[in-house]
Amino acid sequence: METAQGMNRSVKIFTTHELLFIIGIIGISFSSIFVRWSEADVAVIAMYRLYLTNLLLLPFVWKYRSSMFRLSARQWAWLAASGIMLALHFLLWMASLRLTTVASSTVILTLEPVFVMIGSYFLFRTKANRMMLLGMGIALIGSIVIGSSDFGLSPQALLGDLLSLLGAAAVAVHMLIGKELRKEVNAFAYNFWVFLFAATALAFYNLVKGNAFGGYSSKEWGIFLLLAIVPTLFGHYLFNWLLQYMKAAAVSMSVLGEPVIASLLAWMLLKEPLTGYQLGAGLFILFGVWLFIRYGKEKEPAGA
């Protein structure tokens, strides 16, 4: 009886994490739409997105206030590094949305798990099994197809593609650092400090660039708030929390679902064209993500 109850609890926990994972994918898919709706500089958008997120998190982190400051110098340094990489990701990727299509920008982000896997191999000697590689391969093929019709040949579009690529590399580094820090730092504390470091880094960038910190319309503030709630709290925050239950490479695969939903939203809300090839490729992506999460497990490092 006790064994059966334990199995039921395990199934329930797995189902809850899977559901939260799906919610996170939907949440981050709205990010590109909100950025496109805003007329503010992308660095300002990202800065207020993160600062407002921390304001919303204050009630949850308050009870951890005493332990949040009892961190080692090494932990503070890695929190700052993770925050700076997250800030760089937002800055580069949001800038790409001003230069290329939503489909092209988001599809390039699907290379993030490749960067994560490469980083995991060199840093932790982590290897992937065949099912992980198969799922990733299927999803990446679908991702390439879904954005192929939108890849532009103009210098502006190519610059947007490059910025998205660099943004994918930056967030992969952020994910790898977070995977290790989450073993030592509470989830609420980790997210709060990383978001604060990221927002502050962007604030310095805005100060140097001369961007205005105020004078924005109620519409702009509404967009900043929506970005804090939908793709950040119900997207990136969920993924950071899930790092304690899922592999870093598995959590990073969430970006493969984003081009599907983001492209559909861009088609409906921004009137960007969406072809049958993109719709068909979307099914490939979803199948690849499901295959990776359902059957993929990272192998233990060599010599473990």
TrEMBL record:
Classification via PANTHER family: EAMA DOMAIN-CONTAINING PROTEIN, INNER MEMBRANE TRANSPORTER
Keyword Secreted: no
Keyword Transmembrane attached: yes
InterPro entries cross-referenced by the UniProt entry: AA-Vitamin_Transporters, EamA_dom, EmrE-like
Subcellular location: Endomembrane system
Family as reported in the entry's similarity comment: Belongs to the EamA transporter family.
Lineage, top ranks: Bacteria, Bacillati, Bacillota, Bacilli, Bacillales
Keyword list, A-Z: Membrane, Transmembrane, Transmembrane helix
Membrane topology: Multi-pass membrane protein
Residue intervals of the EamA domain: 18-146, 159-293
Gene3D superfamilies xrefs: 1.10.3730.20
GO cellular component: membrane
The protein's name in its UniProt record: Multidrug transporter
Residues spanning the membrane: 19-37, 43-64, 76-96, 102-124, 131-151, 157-177, 189-208, 220-239, 251-270, 276-293
